[in-house]
Amino acid sequence: MKINTISILLTLYCGYLSAEPVIETSEPTHAEVIDRFAQLALECVHKEYPNIVKHMMTSDKDVRPPGQLYPAFYGCFDWHSSVHGHWLLTRIASQYPDSTHYQQIMASLDQSFTETNIAGELAYFNRENTGTSFERPYGLGWFLQLTTELREWDNPQAKHWLSILTPLEDKIVANISDWLPKLSFPIRVGEHSQTAFAFGLMLDWSKTANNQAFNDLLTNTISRLYLKDVNCPLAYEPSGQDFLSPCIAEADLMRRILPPVKYAKWLADFLPTLPTNGNSNWLDVANVVDKSDGKLAHLDGLNLSRAWMLEGIAAGLSSKDPRRPAIINAANVHKQAGINSVIHDMHYMGSHWLGSFATYLETQRGLSEN
Hints:
Layout: H1 2-18, H2 30-42, H3 66-69, H4 79-95, H5 102-112, H6 115-125, H7 138-152, H8 156-179, H9 195-208, H10 212-226, H11 246-254, H12 260-270, H13 298-315, H14 324-343, H15 348-351, H16 354-362
């Protein structure tokens, strides 16, 4: 009996030793979350490979590595992700100067924003016989968001960098201005070529840069393309690799150009099924099954972009509008899912770009336009 008792005690003791220790975890602080976003961009803005090059070749001499094609924006897997990675760093440095990554961010931006690098970028945009569609509209919109951030940042170094970027900014604005009158129809997809989201980024620039001619052209284009839209087929969303919602993005765009009363009426015609009971389940949160698949990983970005766009839609409505609770509640559940996907471990297929979307949401960039 004594032997059996000892055996039982030894078994229990060994089981205690082999058991997984209970580790109490706490939610990260806001500062820790912001530093996480900065870390993601710092890890990729000067990481040349892997890389997807979207590049028209007209001869053998055009066969070159990303760092030679795009001397400033060669990192983060592709040009547009590099651009909004630099925007992320600029946003965090301007809004959170006490960030633990501040000095590293400043050094990284200074490495990219040199006269030589931007001259190389401008030369790429000025190549003959290659058209003006490169990174249109998504990457171009993000570039203008980058220079918007530099303009709004009260920092001498930011103004110096802006002066270096201005020649490329002028070229991009000219390209967009030439394109907008020719655009017969909006581009209603959930990926890079969508016009609604990019137009919002461009509107921010036009106001901050005080470019009334561009603002008028863009606002008239938006009205021409979207003002008569009704009954957006939200039930068909999302597609399997969306990171933007065609319907939600358009609704967020239109609140930027319409006064509140007109916007409330337009939204009723555009999304007539918006609930008035406060439920959040009218818009399902997306789930990524394989984060190593770059296209499937887009859905993590969809949760983030839906969250900030829903917040924008709610901001465009009266506080007494019965649709606001359902819109805000849907924004909250999408935000939780989206931020969770970024603060935890990710594959590079998501980490090279999702930090920018998380930063845009967390810092309420979409709500801070002038």
